[in-house]
Amino acid sequence: MSFETIQFAVKDGIATLILNRPQVMNALNRQMRAEITQALTNLTEDVRCVVLTGSGKAFCSGQDLTDASGALDLEATLRDEYEPMLRAIRDCPAPVIAAVNGVAAGAGANLALVADVVIAAESASFVQAFTRIGLIPDAGGTWAIPRAVGAARAIGMMLFADAIPARQAADWGLIWQALPDDEFAQGVTDRARHLAQGPTAAYLAVRNAVAASFDNDLDEQLRLEARLQGEAGRSADFREGVAAFLEKRKPGFIGR
After folding, report:
1. Is domain 6-196 given the CATH code 3.30.565.10 in the classification?
2. Mind listing the pLDDT tens digit for each residue in 71-125?
3. Which of 99, 123, 125, 174 is a good FRET partner for 218, with 20 to 30 A between their CA atoms?
4. Is 204 within 8 Å of 93 (Cβ atoms)?
C-alpha cells in the first residue's frame, strides 16, 4: 500500500503506522483519516501487533481546521470519516499500541485513547482542546474518558481544556504507561514484540470481554467469559501454552 499522509511498514509481525504531517503537528485531514482506515482494514495475516505513533514532535494535534477550506460539516465528517477510522482501530484484528510521542490534542488525543494500550513519553500531554473553539469532545472522547478516569476528571478535562501531562494521565488511569523520553522508543518496541509473540486471539478476546463489561450485568458477563474461555480452551495456543509451561520453555504461539 502507498500512502501520502502516513508511513506504514510491517516487520517481524509488527505493523508501524506513523502519522506523517509533522509540519502541522500531524493534524487529521480527510486524506489522513482515509489512509489510516485503509491501512488498518487491509492488514495481512502476518501482522500480530500494530503501533500507532506520530512523526516529529507531536503525536496528533487533532482536526485540521483548514481541511476542505474551512467548509466542514462536522456531523457528516464525524459520521463518515472519523467513525470508520476509530472502528478500524477498535476492531483491528491485532492488538493496537498508541505510542504517544508528543502532544495529543482534541481528536488526536481520542484517536490514541481508542487503542488497546497507550504508552506515552513523559514529555507528551493529552488535551481535550475542543471547548477552546466552542466545540464538544468527539472522536469517542465522551465515551472513553469517563470510563477511564471517572466523570469528575473527565468533565474537568473537557471544560477547562488543560493539558494533562503523560505522568498524570498514567496516574489517573487514562493511559497504561508513561516512560522517560530516553526510554520511550525501546519501551514501545519491547511491548510491541511481547504482544506480537503472544496469543493474539486471546488478546482480542480480552478486548471484547472488557468492552462488554460496561454494559453487562454480572450474570451476562459470566456467560460471556465462559463462552470466550471455551473458545480459547479449544485453541492451539492454549495447548501450546500448557505444553510450554509443563516443559519449562518459552511458548511458540500461533496467534490469530
Report:
1. no
2. 678 899 999 999 999 999 999 999 999 999 999 999 999 999 999 999 999 999 9
3. 174
4. yes
